Each structure stands twice: as C-alpha cells, then as structure tokens.
Amino acid sequence: MIITEHISKRFGNQQVLRDIHITCRPGACIALIGPNGSGKTTLIKSILQMVIPDSGKVIFQGEDITGQWAYRAKIGFMPQMTRYPENMCIGEVISMMIDIRKDQKNLDEELIEQYHLKEIYHKRMGTLSGGMRQKVGACLAFLFQPDILILDEPTAGLDPLSSEILKQKILKEKARGKSTIISSHVLSELDEMITEVIYMQDGQVLFQKTLEDLKQETQEVKLSKMISKIIA
Amino acid sequence: MITHKTYLIVALLTTWFLPSAQASTWKVGKNERFTTLAHAIQHAQSGDSILVKKGVYHEHNLIVDKSLCIIGQGLPVLDGEGKYEVLSIKASQVTIQGFHIRNSGISSLKDLAGIKIYDAHHVQILNNLLTNSFFGIYVQYGKHCTIKNNRIIAYGIEEQQSGNGIHCWNSSFLQIQNNVIKGHRDGIYFEFVTHSIIKNNRSFRNLRYGLHFMFSNNDTYISNVFTNNGAGVAVMFSNHVNMFHNTFHQNWGDASYGILLKEISDGIIQGNHFTKNTTGIYLEGVSRVKMNRNTFSNNGWGLKIQASCQDMTIHHNNFLNNTFDVSTNGTLVLNNFNGNYWDKYDSYDLNRDQVGDIPFRPVSLFSVILEKNPTTLIMFRSFISALMDKTEKLIPSLTPEQLKDQFPLIKPVKL
Amino acid sequence: MNKIYKHVIADIIRNRIVLFYTLILLLASLSVFSLEDTSSKGLLSMLNIILMIVPLVCLIFSTIYMYNSTEFIELLLSQPLQRNAIWWSLFIGLMTSLGLAFFVGAGIVILIFEPSFLGLMLVICGLLLTFIFTAIALLAAVLTKDKAKGIGLSIILWLFYAIIFDGIVLFMLFQWADYPIEKFMIFISMLNPIDLARILILMQMDVSALMGYTGAIFKDFFGTTGGIAISFTTLILWVMIPFMCSLRYFKKKDL
Questions:
Q1: Are C118 and B381 in contact (CB under 8 A)?
Q2: Is domain A2-231 in CATH 3.90.550.10, yes or no?
C-alpha cells in the first residue's frame, strides 16, 4: 500500500533520513518506534509530502506520489501536537475540513460522539487545552474513513479514558482491514494493536519485522521487552 | 414716445438756432444712401454720427480722421481680409461702438490692429467684438481714451504670429473696463502708460501674459480675472502701481506666475486672490510694496521672494493649502512678514490674543533644497523629508533665520 | 475545492489585532479629518498613515500570522490540497482581511471627506500597499524558519522601504545634482512601492507645484494615462513578484 524507496533527507548538515526502505501492506498495523530524533516524524511527513525527500520516492497504492496531492484524501493523519487557527471554534474547524473534502459523503462521526465534541463545538480553538486539541485531531483523522491512518504520538496529552477510546477505535478500524502507522514512545499501549514493528535509529531503519517474528526471536510477550532485547 | 418727441424737438431747435454746429446722422447699409462706410466718412463732418446697418463690409483700411460717432446696428462686420488694419483712428473724440471687427492683417513690420488709435484723445471704443486680429485694440499716444465692454478673441498658436489684445503705448489717463480678452500674446499690454485704470476685465488663455506692464507708473488695476495664461501677469520696471481685488487663477508652468514683479516700487497689492498657480507672486528687486489682505490658496509656492527685495510689508494675508508658502534664494531678509495667517502654523495661543505665541518660519528646508536642486521634488512628502523639515524648524541652519512671522495669526483673516 | 481562503478570512477578521488595527485607523482618520480645519491637512496626515503605518502593520502582522499558522499549514498539507492552493488561500485571506480593515478604517472616511480623484487615489494606493506588504511578509516568512528572524527581517524590510531607500535616493540626488537624472529617478522610484504610491498621490495633491520644470518631467510621466497605467502595473507587479517568489519557495519547503 505504501512503499518508500530509498528515501534520504538532509536538514542543513544533519542527515535525518538515510536510504529508508519500508513497506506497509493493506491491513497492517505498524508501530513506528525509535528514540527521539531518530527520524520518525520526518518519515511520516515525507509520506504526506510535508517534507520533500532529497532522493528516493514514495509509492502509494502503486503510484509515485511526487507532485501528487489527491492521494492524501485516502490518508487520515493525526499530527503530534496541532495548533489550529485560534479564532475558529471546533465546529468551524470540522466543517472546514468537510468543506475541503466536499465529495466525501459518508462521514465517520463515532469519535466525535464518544468525545462529546458536539457539546463544545462553539469553543474557540485558542482556548482549548493540548489534550482537547488532540481529541479534535483524532476525530479529524477518522472522520473521512481513510484507507490508511497515520497517527503521530496519538495518545500524548490524552487522559487515560480518552486514550482508551482512541485505542478501541484504532482496533475497530484495524478489524475493518484498514492499514495503520502509529508512532509512539509508549510501547505498552501498542501491544494489543500492532502487527508489525519498524524500528528507527539515527535516520535509518534498523529493522521491519512482524510481531510474530519478534515473538519467536525474543521469546517475549511484551513489546517493550522484545525491543530492549533486540536492541541490546 | 414722449422722450422721442422731446428729443426731436430739442434736435430741431438746436439745428434751428445753431446752424454752425449742425450735426447730421448718416446711414450706411445695403439700401441706404451710402453702401460703404468709407464713403460716409468722406461726406461726414466732425461731430456727425454714422449709423451702420447689419451686414459685412470689406472696406480695406478705414481711416477715421474726423471726430465722428460711428455706431453699428446689429453688429455689422468690418472684415480686414487678413491684409489690412481695419480701423485707424487719427482724430480725437471718436466713438466706435457695436462692430464686429475681424481678420486684421498680420505683419511683422507694422503692428496692424483691429482698431488703432493714433495720437488722439477722448476716443471711446465700446461694445465691439474683435476676432482673429493681430493686435486687437492698439493705442499709441492716446489720452483719456475709454475701451469698454469689448470682446477680443484670437486663436493664436505661436507668440510670433500673435499680437496683444489691448496694446497701449506712451499713453495716459486710459480707462480699460469690462473687456474679455482671450487667445492673444499678451491680454493687456502697457508700456509707458500712466494714470490709467484697468478694471473688471477678464483675460484668459493668452499665450504669454494676461497683463503685461512695462515702465508704466501710477496705474491701478482692480477686480480683473486672469486665468490660464501662459505666464500669468508681469509687472516690471514700474512704480506706484496698485493692484486691488484681482483674481489670479491656474497659471501653470515653470516660468508661470500669478504675478511676476520685477523692479517695482511703492505699490499696494491688496485683496487679491491667488489660486492654483505654480507660483502666486514672484518678486525680484521689489521695494516698498505693501501686501495685505491677499489670499494665497492651493499654489505650488505662495510667494517666491528673492533676496533683492526690501522694505516690503506683508501682513494680514491668508496662506492656505499651498505646497510651499514662501521660498527665497538667500539668507538676507529685509522684509517684514509679521501678522499673517499660515495654515501650516500649528502652535498655541495661551493668552488668547489670537496671535500665536511663538514665531512661524514660513520657509521650509525642503523648499530651500528644491531651490538648489529641483529634482529633489520627487522626494517631497516622504518621511525623510518631513523629518528634515521638522529638525530644521527646531534648529534653523539652511533656512534664513530672520525670515519669520513674529505674530502669526491663529485664525484666517476675514475678507 | 479550494475554499480554504474563506475560512482563513473568517479567522483573521476575528483576530483582535486586526480589529484593533481597524479601530485605530478609524479613530485616526476620523479625528484627523474632523479636527483639521481644511481637509487637505487631514489628507496629508492620511498620506503619512498610508505610507508608514499601513506597510508596517501589514508586514509585521502577516509575518506573525504566517508563523502562528505553521501547524495549521501542516494540517492543511495533510489534507488532499495542493500547496499552491494553500498558499494562495492564505495570501488571499490575509489580503482580503487587511484590505477590508484598511477600507473600513480609513478608506470610507477618506472617500466621505474627500470625494475626489485624490481621495480615490489615496484609497487605491493604500489598498495596493496593503497587498504589496502582505506579499513581502509572506516572502520574509517563507525564507526564514525562525520566527524572531522572520519578524526581524520584515522590520528591516520596512525600514528599508520607508526610510533607508529614500535616504539613499536623496543622497544620490545631491551627489549627481549637476546631471539630468530626472528620467533615471522615475525608474528608481519604481523600485520602491512606497515611493511610487507617494508620487502618484503627490501628482494629485500638489499639482500646482509640480508644474515647474522638473515637476513637468515627472508630470509628463506620472500625470499621463500611460504613466499612471505603468505605475499601477508596477505596483501590481510589486504584489505578484514577491508572492510568486514566496510561492515557488513554499512549494519546495519542508515543514
């Protein structure tokens, strides 16, 4: 579904991505993990073309995305921390997003309901806490029933309850056959969701393995244990 | 009817009792006794009247050498065919009234005119229309002549091909009133003319000056309007010239002024309006002239006063909306600028005596710079030039320190 | 599809700074016209507001807005939108709201107190300067990643166009006072939109003074239909060129 072919990116004199080559098959739920500054966010941004790679290309559903933009309709992206236009209220942000994708008819408003966002539609974005903004981001990511979900640190800043709601939603979508890429530090919450792990360090992919393979290699049940074992 | 009868009786009586002073009226026209005016003049005697009926007369050069009263009825046309001087008046006490005089000859050797007065006195030129003349009305060695209610219109394109509307030379005691002059070289031209009055004339769209004074003393001009002339009005080398209540409007151009005053002394300039001229008044070598109650509005420069001027008193004038109120070319100031209203003055009047408490310096730094380097005009009204002006107002360095109004008025002078 | 600009406008119009700017302009223009006894003095003050305040506010506000919108732009980029469309929408949004602020705050008042060609010229020049300095702010914002640097850059740009450029021109005028450089000056004035706007207004404001010799050369250019057309084309180019540069840069920019 998504294949990155030999992507490299340099910011100034810092090489952030070195020859990244990953594959994301339909139905896969990939955990993108690695220490801070390992290039996870840059990789995600390359897929969305927010960062334009120096070399290499991204193939999305069989097509090179260079210079394309329509493919993003099939991606639900939830950024790390999002700021929205301060003077817009929640309702306006959501209706703006709907306005952008006018031709998209069947909307998934499940999260909006679960987070009771409609009750605070009139609140201005500038007045919201970080967690509230995360919720809005999550709702937007799922709203258009995308084929693939890319979630960058989705649970950071969310309270446990909201975090659980989000997790359940991810599982539900996974069951429907959607692909998911989640980047996270909190490995414990990934256990039950993921099928594959991509581990990045210093702008390189150390490995991309399925959870099954990892289990066999390390003889561990917990993801965090597996990783620490394999890194060591 | 009664007055008509009385007039007839009186006329009969006079002819009866004073046969020697018998005055006749001769008629000229298609079906009259005379078909040409020249013929009628030939037969008439001094004191007679000639009535000219409507029509077009080609009389070549008509010479009036008797004291006649020649009156046109229904604006008869005297046509000079572009070759002749139409009317030459060589006798005194002649009246010319109600003619349309057109197409005088053009000559570079002789000053051909529509009507020319040669060495005569008490000549009256009234209610005529002069079109396409080289010179319109020309007076030489005239005394006590009246030129009134004439319309003098030419279509001059070049100065060389065009004469003056009313040209007076070596004359005195003239009255020039209510004339309209348009399209000549100079609207009204005075050279060596004294003790004359120019009143209520309109002079506009002339190629050079609306009014041009040279070596003419003790003259007064009142309530005239000078608009859109090539170079405005010039008064030069004269003294005791008074100018009251005239309007100078839209005289635009580099060498164009409301009034150009050069080598003038002892006059009064009062109650005039200078509006939208490049320069309201340009003064050079002017002395002892009093200027008061004039209004300068929307001019490029209100006054351009050269350092050669002295003993001028300039007071109770209004300076409104001029780009520059006053500019000068030197630092020497021998004139008095006290007691005017300047709209650029923005100080205070704590004792409420309607006089500003600190003096006003009407010369801005930028106008001094502009005087030296005209191209800087392109920087006018920029922030940096405003900044320079403000600094200069606090610490005068380039602008003449002495040129200031000690008692600037807080409110405009009511006129 | 590309209807984001109306959302951007809706956002900026409610921005407190824009509201404040509108209010200040309104207060300034009303007081300037009602306190002065002649409208021409009011016009002079308005001229200074248009030439100094408008560019400054547009530059600083737009730069800050662009930086504050970084995350918003990221969000939009994750949507099926062209980069072109996003940048255009932001630009149109900023232009419309700042232009509207100027028009409501100053334009209407000018047209009421000075319903003449001069008044119209002031309003048009004010609007064009709003657009130009918004475009320049976009370029400044896209060129620098750091917010402080970006704001610094836009202040320097303002200082340059509003003051330093004129200082240099004045210096040149004095240095080459003996040469006929009037035509060259016309060209130079095209290089600074503030100067160009000022001269266009000057042509209407100080028409009598400009009929003099040097004035006549400027008048022959700036006073004719052709000259006015060239000047306005130049001003529009001043909107388009910085914007197009910023757009080119934005298309390749990493966020």
A1: no
A2: no
